[in-house]
Amino acid sequence: MKGLEISFRDVGHSDAVEQHIREKAGKLTTTFDDIIGIRAVVAMPHNHSYKGKLAHVSLEIGLPGQTVAITRDQHDQHEHEDMYLAVSDAFDKATRKIKQIHDKRTDKARRAGA
């Protein structure tokens, strides 16, 4: 996919996680064709021992005239010890946000034509 940048912080590079991100990004760009680029950052910062290691996923999605920033930084969600689930949650949130923006733009265009 053109315009996809993936970074790993405080965690080793994983081909499997990168492939999971590529699949999710590909699905997102086929759903919304006006996406210019996606930047994904996967981090596993050091947390207190009682919380475990929780994955943090940040997405920046470029749209014409706008950038959508998504951060999945849930300290209380122990499911996010699974990096794949954290990535999926971030892309699900991104899909909802971009759909909201897309619907708003479509509605404005429809009203302007009326």
TrEMBL record:
Quote the Gene3D superfamilies the UniProt record gives.
Ribosome hibernation promotion factor-like
Q: Which Pfam families match?
A: Ribosomal_S30AE (PF02482)
Q: What residue intervals traverse the membrane?
A: none
What SUPFAM superfamilies does this protein's entry cite? Ribosome binding protein Y (YfiA homologue)
Q: Which CDD domains match?
A: RaiA
InterPro entries associated with the record: RHF-like, RHF/RaiA
This protein's source sits in the domain of life called Bacteria
Quote the protein name from its UniProt record.
RNA polymerase subunit sigma-54
